[in-house]
Structure formats: structure tokens, C-alpha cells
Amino acid sequence: MLEIIEWDGTVINEPGLYSGIPLETYHNDQSLLPGPSVSKSSLKAIAPPDGSPKQFWQTWAGNPRRVKSKSSKAMDFGKAVHALILGDEVFDEKFIIRPEKVEGETYHGQKTVWKRWYREQEQEGLTVITEEQIEQIRLMAEDLAQHPLVIAGGLNGQVEVSMFAKDPVTGIWLKSRPDNLAADGVYVDLKTAGSLDQQFLERQFHDAGYYLQPAMTKMVCDLLGIPFASFTFLYTLTDGYADSDFRVAYEGDILLGEKVIRYGLSKIRHGLATGEWPGISTYARENLPIGMNDWSRKRIETALQQEGFSL
Q: 233: helix, coil or strand?
């Protein structure tokens, strides 16, 4: 059985598995660990070819002047799904269900009274969820409960466990927090998706940086000397009706993710040492020409030909 330490609210000086750490603290409190730390979420900003050290630095919690990203409706809904289905947060402490009326006014996003009410919830640190969304999450939970992976115990492991280990090469702390941790090295993460089509999920796997998640988990496991057998993504559909499916992370992509993380760590260490955080234009695409894509170029050429124009 894996040893899981209950967090006592102080700085974590020893690598290991910890419970009781709020999500906000895990993601944004750089004083949680005795040195700089990164997770999959922060490393996505530096991953090539579209990321850069500059983008990472400007959004990283370790930068006192960072640009804080605004939460989207999809992100808020995903957090509510996790809170209600997995219990990784106390729902009533983080969310509020939108009432039918405020000061006698039915909901309208442009009404002053509703704008004020939303601001008040934001100041209280609460995310607004509608009754319709609660009903959708209930249907999602019922569908997930019937999925063979869940029936087999795929979500019966430890929830709310944060994993920490210090990279011996750069001295940067690595963080991972899979949704469900089993003692035999099987990790499961719940994801919401607008489609369960394979091509859609593959694009999302890249665009959202999901491939970095099992890679980071494996790296932390290796440093802690604990098993890592597989990482499964359990998807629940958010579009129209309840459905669910799962995909096991491809081993080749996990290894590629480890390379990306190692690359990112080296650039972060260099940036911390020198204060240099190159942007994408000077770092990855120097001297790259700009022009139209082949489809646009062909449209112009065809139009000119149809007009009988030639040089």
C-alpha cells in the first residue's frame, strides 16, 4: 500500500504523496514547496512548437507579475463535474447554483443587478453553476456508473492525492495530481469532452497538453520509486446527451511527453538563472517567411486564370 501523508499546512520539504491539499494551493501557491515547481498545466505553455519560455514565464505562478488566465465556461463546468462526481473539492465551498431571480429580476446577463451579483460571487471565490448544468452532471454521473471501467473499480482508488518529487538535474520540483490513484500503479483521470470521436480526442490530447499528464506522473513515480503501470483517460460527454468512454495513454506519447518536460525544465532553469525568457518568434521560428497557404494561393491563381489574365 502506498504511503500517503496528510498535509499539515506547512511547506512540503520531503518528496512523496500528500492528501488534503486544496486545488488552488496545489496549482498556484509556489510557497508550498521549498523551491520552484511545475505541473503539467504550467509546462504546456513552454511545449514546442507553439509554446515558448516567454509564454511560460508570463503565466507561471512563480512569476510575481504573471498574467492570470481567466476561467472559461467549459473550465468551470469541468471543475463542477470533478467536484460532484469525484469529490475532489467540497462543492458548496467552491460553487453556487444560480438562483431564478435576484432582487426580483429574472436572469439576464446584461442587467446591472445580475452583473453585480456575478461580481459578488467572484469576490467570494465562488463559481456559478446553473440548475441545468447540475442536471447534466447528474446524467453524466449515472452514465459513468454504468461504464465497465467504473464498475470494475476504475474510480475506487485514492482521490485528491498530490505527488511531489524534486528533479535531480535542475532542482525544480515536479507536481502531479491524477484524479484517481490505485496501489498497483494504475492512474485514471476524468475528462469532459465535446465529442467522443477518435480524431476529436486525438486533437484534444495534443492541443490541451493531455500527453504531458501521464508523462509527468510517470516521472514523479520513477523519482519516488513507486509503480507506474498505465494512465487511463475516462471521458464523459458534455454535448447533448450522456455518454462515456476511455482511452489508455499510448506509451510512445508518454515517452515523448517526458522529452518535452525535460526540455521545458532545462529552459526554465536557464531562464531562472539568467532572466532570459525568449518568445516564440526569436526562439523557435527565426527567419521563417510569411505567406499564404497553398489553398489560398491556388484560389487566387484560379481566379486570375478564369479572368484570362496572365503575365
A: strand
Instruction: Give pLDDT tens digits for 136-160.
Output: 888 888 898 898 888 888 888 888 8
Higher-confidence residue of 165 and 89: namely 165
Quote the pTM value.
0.83
In this structure, the chain runs to a length of 311
Q: How much helix, strand and coil, in percent to the nearest 5, is found in the chain?
A: 45, 15, 40
Q: What domains can be seen in the chain, in order of their start residue?
A: 4-283 (3.90.320.10)
Reading the block at residue 158, the C-alpha cell is 485514492
Which of 247, 248, 246, 244 is closest to 146 using CA atoms? Answer: 244
Taking CA atoms, 125 is separated from 60, 120, 148, 307, in Å, by 20, 9, 36, 61
The answer to whether the bond into 36 is cis (omega within 30° of 0) is: no
Q: Going by DSSP bridges, is the β-strand pair 37-38/173-176 parallel, antiparallel, or unpaired?
A: parallel
pLDDT higher at 139 or 18: 18
Give the C-alpha distances (Å, rounded to integers) separating 76 from 7, 33, 192, 227, 253. 26, 27, 11, 32, 28
Q: How far apart are CA 294 and CA 62, in angstroms?
A: 42
Cell of 97: 447554483
Cα–Cα distance for residue pair 155/158, rounded to 1 Å: 8
* Helix orientation angle between 212-224 and 251-274, rounded to the nearest 10 degrees: 80
pLDDT classification of 311: cutoffs 50, 70, 90? low
